[in-house]
Amino acid sequence: MLVRGSYKIIPIEDMGGGSFGFVQKVEVYNQKDHLCGLFAMKTMKSNAREIESFRRRFVREGHLQAKCSHPNIVQIYICDLESVEPWFVMELGEIDVEKLIINGKFPKKERLKCILDLLLGMSHIHQQKLLHRDIKPSNMVKVGDKYKIADFGLVKDTVSSPETTPLTAIGQGMGTPGFLAPEAVFGHFSDQSDIYAIGTFLEYMCYLDEELTRKLAPIINKCRAHVPSDRYQSVNQILKIFLPIYEEGMNA
């Protein structure tokens, strides 16, 4: 059992992790020992805490994710980002979208709902002057009846830290192949590089669905244009074109 402020946190399952932190499914109890529910807790790895640049990135991840309060973004509830062992507790995803696609248990209406939730969440992220930089199906999770954007590990604040740090230099593993825009390979990130990744995400959502492929192909092709200026210039532009497709599919 872990005591964090006025909360008691009991880890019940390891859920994996990334370069800087590990994630556990946890039970959270308040000071009256009432169960608050099941959550996911991300804690900074001990070996990463010794490297100041890694610590800054982990703390930044927590701050930026907490900043994005939106129904389609995984919410952080409690945290201590200044402690020797930084951590935060957030909503628990039931399953990620990549697994739903692989399992084949992802009906068309759910796919359309997922795309809408992705676009709404990404629109909010960009309104906050942030770039996600790692949009992909495994970073979108189902929470109740909503799909939510997760993993802010590569999120960039374009206002407070516009420069590229050594950790985001060429060849440092920034982003995911296939979802990474051509210019992003050279460290040039923008709203349009996120939009490129959205296009690849939509392509995955069309898996084994010829009708959806036909309807989304024009959106996908424009999102994934080689030149950033040839892509949609905002997520809201994609939303405007996608909404009639969504409404038609949901009413079918």
Automatic annotation (TrEMBL):
Domain Protein kinase: 9-252
InterPro entries found in the cross-reference section: Kinase-like_dom_sf, Prot_kinase_dom
The keyword Nucleotide-binding belongs to this UniProt entry's keyword annotation: yes
Taxonomic lineage from the root: Bacteria, Pseudomonadati, Pseudomonadota, Gammaproteobacteria, Moraxellales
Organism of derivation: Acinetobacter baumannii
UniProtKB keywords: ATP-binding, Kinase, Nucleotide-binding, Transferase
Gene name linked to the record: prkC
Entry EC no(s): 2.7.11.1
Xref: Pfam families: Pkinase (PF00069)
Molecular function GO terms recorded: ATP binding; protein serine/threonine kinase activity
Name of the protein: Serine/threonine-protein kinase
